[in-house]
Amino acid sequence: MRTSVTVDTGASRYEILIGRGVWADAASWDGLPRAAHAAIVSNTTVAPLYAGRVAALLQARYREVCTVVLPDGEAHKDWRTLDLIFDHLLAHGADRQTVLFALGGGVVGDMAGFAAACFMRGVPFVQLPTTLLAQVDSSVGGKTGINHPRGKNMIGAFHQPSRVLCELDTLATLPARELSAGLAEVIKYGPIADMGFLDWIEDQLDALRERDPAALAHAVRRSCEIKAQVVGADEKEAGLRAILNFGHTFGHAIEAGVGYGRWLHGEAVACGMVMAAELSARLGLVDRGFVARLESLLQRAGLPTVAPPLGAGRYLELMRVDKKALGGEIRFVVIESPGRAALRPAPDALVREVIEARCGAVA
Amino acid sequence: MRTSVTVDTGASRYEILIGRGVWADAASWDGLPRAAHAAIVSNTTVAPLYAGRVAALLQARYREVCTVVLPDGEAHKDWRTLDLIFDHLLAHGADRQTVLFALGGGVVGDMAGFAAACFMRGVPFVQLPTTLLAQVDSSVGGKTGINHPRGKNMIGAFHQPSRVLCELDTLATLPARELSAGLAEVIKYGPIADMGFLDWIEDQLDALRERDPAALAHAVRRSCEIKAQVVGADEKEAGLRAILNFGHTFGHAIEAGVGYGRWLHGEAVACGMVMAAELSARLGLVDRGFVARLESLLQRAGLPTVAPPLGAGRYLELMRVDKKALGGEIRFVVIESPGRAALRPAPDALVREVIEARCGAVA
């Protein structure tokens, strides 16, 4: 069983292929950009599992195939690691047609994509996401970049992949913590766009955590459909696309505040969604039952819902550099009504209340 | 007297305003992107001369104006210096509407432009070029980037400025060596596009070196016209745009080979143009008189025409990573006939002959 979802931003159009055995199917690789040279970008965890297999598939299509293996984890999503990709490409005779293949999770995809955006001012790339989070969110839509000590994903580019190949079999080897982190982004699509999907997730959560292939296939497909629709309407985040950042304003502050890599991105987003839902309730947009329902589902998914005690001042400081902030005013993705999100500012005093209500005790 | 040239790439359209007093004219700044915040990016040489004046002009239009001062020179066109811009922007409350103003020569423009391309995945920027080279070439057309130890401008983006304001009065304080470097790029437009312009340069060279305002105004305007026409036809260098790189394949090898900053970019391009003309002659495309004429004019402009003795092997190694190379084959911009250029490969043996004929003795 294999399905496809099309992303069409006007300026570019590509397919997301989803299923078991998608990589093994030769047709999945047909029609990719031609070049003398292909480079696989992976990390120390994923490369031993899949890089040899992917290299063999690419050798049938590219004269030279090289693999660059990055250190694993959000803590390495910086210029130093990006430079490893550039060094490797230049040492191995890459040129401005070279195609990059991002083999790994969200960090690998973001960095390989940004490297592709910048190398010789732009080369094509293909996403081969191996985590649930990357398959349902980060590999789709062309957001690429690296972190800055002051803020997450501060340096980057919009650079759409030529294709996304979601091999569902890779989810079988995914650590449970990573699976839960991916479920956070799956759950996200409910409150912002499709409460029927949220009902389905609640019903199928045990199957998802047990990695039932049919349940995972539906979760990935429906997530990609929603994301493709939003990105197609607003590639560069002039407006609508910001709703995909539900939970991310608080979440990015958690990631930067505790130090990149301590919390997984999906974990920080889970906690951030509870905080953003709490804010929505305090703004009178949703009722308490909605907040409790979201919190309970995230807990069932194995995700944290109590924020680290950084102090409200530090949260506000970190959120003021969020990319959605304008002229010093933080803007939050709030739930206007279940299934519909919007971007809006909130008074600092109210945000402080949210943080205090949702933070754990200082250790 | 003030003239304007329009650049229209289809995806973006902007004006180059050229003249004395262009900055002082309030109308020059009308219609730029609105934001709460503007950031001037300059260097230790240019900032003391002009940053205060530009900041005063911007303060009338932006609530907050900050200035980041970079170390001067090609040797600093790297990630470390770029990061100074990001640090400064984040420390000063920049957001995704912040407008960057590149105040300086080609290095400042390339780095401020690349920073604008990457900061929060893209903010607008304005070019305020203060060198002849930047006014006639690098500030126009949206090529931005930084160097890599293995090759010049290897990491970058196409990111068009919102406007280019060529204040000709800044050329009065330009060191003679920098003026000559700029003349190399002015002279370049003759062989590749307009032999009538080459005749004019030959006639007006003394006036140009004496900084005659009318001569400089014509040189900048005609250069920008040619560049705008080429960039408008081929923004991303799918083909035609490569002709603007006449002399640059050899020139970039010189810059990287002797160490960035030892030769000015324009000096390396001057020498590279003689080598590329020599190659064109050896390919039977132009006669010896054409090569001698170009060499003589560059010498009159105060530019070097004898290449540094890096050894042919090192030249070839450096040129193999040139962005125009494909599948390991170096491609050169050659003069097909005076006023017309084209991109083509050449046998290594012939290129070695050119290098040996045009290199100085090993010291």
Explained architecture:
The structure is a homodimer of 363-residue chains. By secondary structure, chain A is of the alpha/beta class. Chain A folds into two domains: 2-173, Rossmann fold (3-Layer(aba) Sandwich), CATH 3.40.50.1970; 185-358, Dehydroquinate synthase-like - alpha domain (Dehydroquinate synthase-like, alpha domain, Up-down Bundle). Helix content of chain A is 45%, strand content 20%. The first copy, chain A, has twelve helices and eleven strands. In chain A, the strands form three sheets. Chain A has a seven-stranded mixed sheet with strand order 1-2-9-6-5-3-4, with helices on both faces. Chain A has a two-stranded antiparallel ribbon with strand order 7-8. In chain A, strand 7 (143-148) and strand 8 form a beta hairpin. In chain A, helix 2 packs across helix 3, helix 5 packs parallel to helix 9 (265-282) and helix 6 (195-209) packs antiparallel against helix 7 (213-233). The longest helix of chain A is centred in the middle third of the chain and has 21 residues, at 213-233. Chain A is globular and about 60 Å long. The model of chain A has no long low-confidence stretch (mean pLDDT 96). The interface between A and B is large, with 39 and 39 residues.
